[in-house]
Specification:
This protein has 478 residues and is α/β, with parallel strands linked by helices. The chain is 29% helix and 12% strand. The strands form 2 sheets. It has an 8-stranded mixed sheet with strand order 3-2-1-7-8-9-11-10, sandwiched between helices. Helix 2 packs across helix 3.
């Protein structure tokens, strides 16, 4: 099969350096009637944007468990398991030689072995059009971790907590929901469901850096809904602080932007705010940074905040009272077009430039994560970590979602959240309210977790049917 060895199928699996590259979780909904010919076939040397198109396409697909119906030409469960096992046994190059190059299976069908449903916009295209999508599926398969068979029970998890001294805690919005702060993806109550009234093609566009640059008023119109209204922290935050006090916390990687980890007392040297926070804001024009309290009134009012330093500089450059100059043609000189969100008055008589927009220092889709995320993980934590706790996150946003597969395979990992994480095999899954679960773990470990929101509730803990290491935690009715 000529040209196959130059396709992304032969590219290396994800390397450490890949964690430093910006990735997108835009999950854009592609038009199913799009022109098939517009989807490029990738070869070595082509622009990374083309590959990003396939990454977006892959991210937007439902998990295999969510398919309404299986495609006609689909690998069976047994075939899929055999293909995945063979891939890990012989490696990517040999696997491709034995399958595609030997003519035993098409790329389109092989995609289904890795949970990828062939998208409608590729229907009828040559099989080679499926190579990039299959290549991404293989790369993700090779980056997945395998469950460690020796850890299955809650007591196993408690013992790991007792003996571990370098714990990575990876947290998401679920650790703050008990404070009334919405998460992002919960049906009906999550932030994205609340933003549907904006009429965007995808509610996540509110946090798209390109859209923010085009019209920041969209973000500012909903900022009050996501702005932390409290400095109170939850029992789960207190649990992470307890790990720190016991000398067990290696790093808390948080995806939250509410800055409540700092309020709970997590030291800055132990905290990586992967998606930034509302603690500060920066001018997109001059880079001037302020504490977010200085633009708080604008955020609460839904009004686009302007840079004070830009305003001062503009006033110094154009003193009040100088009339607007006109060109020989009688028209004002070229200037930046005033946008709909910019303040204006009909009788404005002076040509004053627009001050820069203040952007809270949260990481938007399309922006790089802080360098400290990659540096801490690669250069420090990976060699030291002896336990991973993933709490209150569905791990849907890259590159944070790739952390689990990047860490050493022998490191045990525990998952605590309301809903199971379908795309990663953790060693012990504990499903329920995060606060209740960490309180119960501390009780069993003999630790004194103190917090005003902790109640003396009795929990009903049940092993999920068909699983050996997945448990539900529910408060018993009184």
């Amino acid at each position: 099969m000529e040209g196959l060895h130059q396709s992304p199928l032969k590219a290396p699996a994800i390397e450490i350096i890949d964690l430093s590259k910006p990735e997108s979780d835009e999950e854009e909904q592609r038009d199913e009637n799009a022109d098939d010919a517009s989807l490029p076939e990738l070869e070595d040397g082509e622009d990374d944007d083309h590959l990003s198109l396939y990454e977006d396409l892959l991210d937007s697909m439902p998990d295999q468990s969510e398919w309404d119906e299986e495609p006609l030409d689909t690998c069976t469960v047994e075939e899929s398991f055999a293909f995945r096992k063979r891939l890990r046994l012989v490696g990517e190059d040999q696997f491709i030689t034995e399958t595609l190059e030997a003519g035993k299976i098409s790329a389109k069908k092989l995609c289904t072995a890795f949970g990828i449903r062939p998208p409608p916009l590729l229907e009828g295209q040559p099989d080679q059009k499926y190579y990039p999508l299959l290549g991404l599926g293989i790369t993700r398969e090779l980056s997945k971790r395998f469950k460690l068979p020796q850890y299955n029970t809650i007591e196993d998890a408690v013992e790991l907590l007792r003996k571990s001294t370098n714990i990575i805690v990876l947290t998401g919005a679920g650790i703050s929901t008990s404070l009334g702060i919405p998460d992002f993806r919960s049906k009906d109550t999550g932030l994205y469901s609340r933003l549907e009234h904006l009429g965007l093609s995808d509610p996540q566009e509110v946090f798209d850096i390109t859209i923010f640059r085009e019209d920041p008023s969209i973000f500012y119109s909903v900022a009050k809904d996501i702005l932390p209204a409290t400095q109170k922290f939850s029992p789960t935050h207190a649990f992470i602080k307890l790990l720190q006090d016991k000398g067990k916390l290696l790093t808390n990687f948080t995806q939250n932007i509410d800055n409540l980890e700092s309020c709970a007392g997590i030291l800055s040297e132990k905290l990586i705010q992967c998606h930034g926070s509302f603690a500060t804001a920066t001018c997109v024009e001059c880079g001037y940074r302020v504490k977010c309290e200085e633009i708080y009134k604008d955020l609460k009012a839904g009004r686009v905040a302007r840079c004070d330093r830009c305003v001062r500089m503009l006033r110094q450059a154009k003193p009040f009272g100088i009339k607007r100059k006109r060109s020989m043609s009688g028209f004002a000189p070229n200037k930046k077009k005033r946008q709909s969100y910019e303040d204006s008055t009909d009788d404005e008589d002076y040509d004053i430039a627009v001050a820069g927009v203040m952007k809270p220092d949260i990481t938007f889709f399309g922006e790089d994560l802080p360098e400290t995320f990659h540096d801490r993980l690669v250069q420090h934590d990976r060699a030291l970590v002896d336990l991973v706790l993933v709490i209150g996150t569905s791990l849907k946003v890259a590159p944070v979602s790739e952390v689990s597969g990047f860490l050493p395979a022998e490191t045990p990992q525990i998952y605590i959240s309301r809903e199971p994480c379908q795309h990663i095999d953790f060693d012990v899954d504990m499903l329920g309210e995060c606060d209740s679960i960490v309180t119960e773990l501390c009780r069993r470990a003999g630790w004194d977790l103190k917090h005003e929101m902790i109640r003396d509730d009795k929990l009903d803990v049940q092993l999920h049917e068909g699983y050996e290491s997945r448990y539900s935690f529910k408060i018993k009715a009184t």
